[in-house]
Task: structure prediction
Amino acid sequence: MPKFRKKPVVIEAWENDGNPASQMVKPKWLSDAIVSGVVWLVNAPPAIYMIKTLEGEMVCSPGDWIIQGVKGELYPCKPDIFKATYEAA
Result:
């Protein structure tokens, strides 16, 4: 069976560390998504977000990352998957 490698792409991401102070500092793309209703806070503290994704609504728990994909789409990513998939650019 043929094997494939993921193309190297640069994404933007924000870690939901659950810290109330860091909840106040978000990238513009995430703040815009909150204003437009694509992302919303469902619990605080700890901060738990819901995200409208292409696959439906998904939860972003403390420790998870919110990733902005190559087409501007948003989705949550568990920390172990994030660490295995991404590195600082």
